[in-house]
Amino acid sequence: MAKHSGGWWVPLLQNRYLLALLVMLSVSTLVAFFVRAGLDACDRNIEVVDKQVKSVPQIASKPSPLSFMKSKRVLLVSHQLSLSGGPLLLMELAFLFRIVGAEVYWITIQKPSEEDEVIYSLEHKMLDRGVQVFSAKGKEAIDAALKADLVVLNTAVAGKWLDVVLKEDVSRVLQKVLWWIHEMRGHYFKLDYIKHLPSVAGAMIDSHVTAEYWKNRTQERLRIKMPETYVVHLGNSKELMEVAEDSVAKRVLREHVRESLGVRNEDLLFAIINSVSRGKGQDLFLRSFYESLQLIQGKKLQVPTMHAVIVGSDMNAQTKFESELRNYVIQKKIQDRVHFVNKTLTVAPYLAAIDVLVQNSQARGECFGRITIEAMAFQLPVLGTAAGGTTEIVVNGTTGLLHPAGKGGVIPLAKNIVKLATHVERRLTMGKRGYGRVKEKFLEQHMAERIAAVLKEVLKKSKSN
Ligand SMILES: *[C@@H]1O[C@H](CO)[C@@H](O)[C@H](O)[C@H]1NC(C)=O
Ligand SMILES: *[C@@H]1O[C@H](CO)[C@@H](O)[C@H](O)[C@H]1NC(C)=O
Ligand SMILES: *[C@@H]1O[C@H](CO)[C@@H](O)[C@H](O)[C@H]1NC(C)=O
């Protein structure tokens, strides 16, 4: 029934087709979502929206909470520029600043020596919006840092730039540095990166668990003290919300994706949408999925045909782990139930097509996990590991169900899959409550308000120095 080429490969959705589809539906905004390909646990999961293509003028809305940044000079320091969560999030902030009339400067620390198409296109996107893009090493960068009202260092790794470029001027800049941290892995706790952390004006971290972890690790490992630390949960972009709230667009996307996967409208579709890697737990999810099929068969439960889709494959990068996943599927003879989709720029169609999002990140979990709030915007319940930022987003029993990370979570997740498969009402109610939670806490406006509160503190501090 599936139109799979070479077994269970699913044809990648054609972006152009989807865009045409959205235009046809006269959705006001064209969207392109980037699944990030960052290096670290927290960096890999955030999807960001490209806001460039707008066909309808912006609807007048509340004034931006960041309007006090008008005419302020802001230098944004990114460790790299790619379609990964960290840099794209910083770009979103750059555009929020531009909208309120701040002067925004951007530098990228690590750049490949040869021409790079992605960097070129992202830089032009910024230039179009009036962001001034400088080289990380030149005099311009130093001047911008010295004259700035605010410097935002993005990710722990960006810390190296302070000494290398600013040299003896470092101390003049630290008091206006806000350090935005999105990672939670051991190898970032190196003095090389973060020795100036105690002296900056503030640290902004995506979740409470991550902030606790940083506090603990800097103290225990490096004997340094965190600066004033602010937890800022992320929010969904307006563009994502527009698609999520457009029932016609959602229906068309759902039909299209399901058809391409060979999944019928009445079937139940569970998905993981994350770069494929052991840390994201696709292997354990497949085991849970298999176990859930066994449970259903064993108890002779009446449920719709269930499918699993893993969005985020990259046969080039992760061959060993990818092969392991595919071998498992063959070994358990569930090829007709499990679908692999390549990493894609567009996640909205998949969110429109599925019934349940599985967030199976392992160990310390996600730093935040933006896909979780994106799924909730689409009224999907979330089955997530009780780890990291997921515990701050998903309300266990209300907007989803949590299971332990690690092998010990395989059976609990399998049982939760069965629960949602058998209790239709409960599943739908959880999705609706998740949506309600997003509207209450996880919109761009909320994120901007949270960031504004932090910036006011940070600016106060830098002024008094
Ligand atoms: C998925 O990616 C792999 C490796 O990059 C490529 O060979 C394959 O054709 C892609 N599949 C689809 C359906 O696009
Ligand atoms: C830090 O974490 C370790 C174990 O993860 C714990 O034993 C220790 O008490 C924690 N320290 C602080 C200061 O919270
Ligand atoms: C989530 O709730 C279920 C009951 O609904 C409970 O059994 C489980 O222990 C809870 N998990 C966490 C991590 O709170």
UniProtKB/TrEMBL annotation:
Source taxon at top rank: Eukaryota
Glycosyl transferase family domain residues are: 255-435
Where exactly are the transmembrane stretches of this chain?
A: 17-35
Q: Does the keyword Transmembrane helix apply?
A: yes
Keywords, alphabetical: Glycosyltransferase, Membrane, Transferase, Transmembrane, Transmembrane helix
Entry's Gene Ontology molecular function annotations: glycosyltransferase activity
One Pfam entry for this protein is: Glyco_trans_4_5
Q: Which PANTHER family match?
A: GLYCOSYL TRANSFERASE FAMILY 1 DOMAIN-CONTAINING PROTEIN, GLYCOSYLTRANSFERASE
In Swiss-Prot or TrEMBL terms, this protein is called Glycosyl transferase family 1 domain-containing protein
Q: Which organism is it from?
A: Acer saccharum (Sugar maple)
